[in-house]
Design goal:
147 residues, 30% strand, Immunoglobulin-like, 2 helices, single chain, alpha+beta
Length: 147
């Protein structure tokens, strides 16, 4: 009996080890009017399918000065995104002093270096999608325009 239980346990461990990864690496570059899209917040939201109402958690990333980003899942903080089609939303982040200004009662609207907002078609009314696929390099580059 111990031998049978040991064999079953070994097979179970082997099967779990062979499972496909739940999250796949996703990275990319964003440009705005041909320039690197710095300080942007990128959100990937998995789209429900007929056979799968909850495909998994969303993922987020932030662009660096060159407009490059890499996704991590939320809230688990795994690298990448779940496979499947995603709605993509891109928002402008506030500057590094925004929290400090808010605590002083100052408005970001009065700042001369205030970031330019992106059109709603890239965020609240997003038209952007991306499909994360197994066995492929998931490079999600976006060229945005403000006009």
């Amino acid at each position: 009996m111990r031998l049978v239980c040991g064999m079953l346990l070994g097979m179970l461990v082997a099967l779990v080890g062979c499972a496909e990864p739940k999250f796949l690496p996703v990275e990319g570059t964003i440009t705005v009017d041909g320039q690197p899209g710095a300080k942007l917040f990128v959100q990937f939201e998995p789209l429900a399918e007929e056979k799968n109402n909850y495909p998994g958690p969303g993922s987020v990333g932030r662009t660096d000065a060159q407009g490059k980003y890499r996704l991590i899942s939320v809230p688990e903080q795994h690298d990448g995104a779940v496979p499947g089609k995603h709605m993509v939303r891109i928002y402008v982040e506030g500057g590094p002093d925004d929290d400090e200004l808010a605590m002083k009662g100052e408005s970001i609207r009065n700042r001369k270096d205030r970031p330019k907002q992106l059109p709603a078609r890239y965020n609240n009314a997003s038209e952007l999608t991306f499909e994360v696929r197994r066995g492929e390099e998931n490079r999600a580059d976006f060229a945005l325009t403000t006009k």
